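ok so I'm stuck.
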Amino acid sequence: MTIRTIFAFLFIALLCFSSCRNDDDDFELAPPRDRTAQQARDKDSLLNYLNSHYYNASTFATPGNYSYQDIIIEELPEDGVLPDPDDNTLLIDAVEIHVITYLNVEYEFYVLKLNQGGGEQPNFTDDITLNYEGSLLDGDVFDSTANPANLDLINLIEGWRRVIPGFGTSVSVTENPDGTVSYDNYGLGVMFLPSGLAYFNSPPFGINFYDNLIFKFELYRTQPNDHDEDLIPTHLEDLDSDYNIYKDDTDNDDVPNFFDPDDDNDGVLTKYEDLDNDGDPTNDDTDGDGVPNYLDASTSISNQDEEQ
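replied:
not stuck anymore, here's the structure
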């Protein structure tokens, strides 16, 4: 089996997984609704939720290493008056509003940023370590972690790939005598996602079709990914910067660049087109045409040839 065949097989296998986390065996599919119309409904639902729920803002007024479990969101009483305004804040008055285009539809989502996090910010294709809790708008929890989970962002729902990179990781990690690990000054927040940035018409068990979702999270660590080990970090294989690495396929061989060890199909593996051996093939452009060698099929010089 050739390297290209192996990577093609692995790529097809990867497409069988999507999540946060989509590793449930109970997978259902419903006929898809019009995404634009569904987003309009989801936006109304989320805005209604944000206008009718509040959180314990005063808890986070003093800097500290809080848990997602410290975030308490409650519905306004029937009279619509915010209880204890010195302690609580209406969600709509605290969230950041973000607008993106995904699958040709304009989506609005909302982020409650309780701590930015002082460490490195992940790329949208990185591995991350975090604790989180996922719930529906009615408060039912469908997923949570008891211990920090290690996840690959490319396997998660679109909303995670857009929200998590906006937070920083922990500035330090301490191994305690009892074997536990403590993190300091990590990203802490809540994301409120429309179904179009979540599971839409293909939810795992515990989530209904077209459910809007809430995720509380603590972001601890990040590690850049190079899924095909070609020395090009996966996030840099998004050539048009549209957050869709699956359609960047320079040699049109149906294997996207981030899973293709020879991006331009010139017979020289991308990692060997790093002619100056600096660990970065992106800055090698032998013919000076503005296209780096690893994307230029007309240039097939290998650093292995130079060593011989």
